[in-house]
Amino acid sequence: MSGGRLTPFVGERYSTIACFDGWPKPWEEGQHWSVVIDFDNQRSSNREPSDGSIRFLAETAPHETLSPGARFELYEGRRCTAIGEVL
Q1: Distance between CA 13 and CA 10 in Å, rounded?
Q2: Residue 80: is its pLDDT beyond 80?
Q3: What separation in angstroms does the CA of 87 have from each of 8, 29, 30, 61?
Q4: Dist CA 36 CA 6 (whole Å)
Q5: Nearest by Cα to 40 from 56, 27, 52, 26
Q6: 78 — alpha (psi -120 to 50), left (phi > 0) or beta?
Q7: Contact 49, 84 (CB under 8 A)
Q8: 3-class SS letters over the chain
């Protein structure tokens, strides 16, 4: 993956801006939503696949987006830090 974090993320929870397939990138015009990911196990590396649960931070977010098969990218500014899929 191009981009990534400058330092590895470690911990059980990560919150940042999500960009689902078909959405504008965070620096483009449009609505953007923050997500919270709670990992099943504490992260020791940002290079390994991980399972966890994802939810939107805001109650007014488009929660129907979190359906199986939905693919997303996580961003810190213009840097893509992770990619994922809702299972």
Answers
A1: 9
A2: yes
A3: 24, 28, 26, 19
A4: 20
A5: 52
A6: alpha
A7: no
A8: CCCCCCCCCCEEEEEEEEEECCCCCCCCCCCCEEEEEEEEEEECCCCCCCCEEEEECCCCCCHHHCCCCCEEEEEECCEEEEEEECC
- At 11, which amino acid appears? G
pLDDT tens digits, 9-58: 777 899 999 999 999 998 898 889 999 999 887 655 556 677 889 999 99
Q: What's at 3, amino acid-wise?
A: G
14: its two tokens: 């990560």
Q: Which amino acid is at 58?
A: A
| Number of residues that make up the chain | 87
- Rounded to the nearest 10°, the torsion over CA 54, 57, 59, 63 is -30
- Tokens coding 52: 């966890």
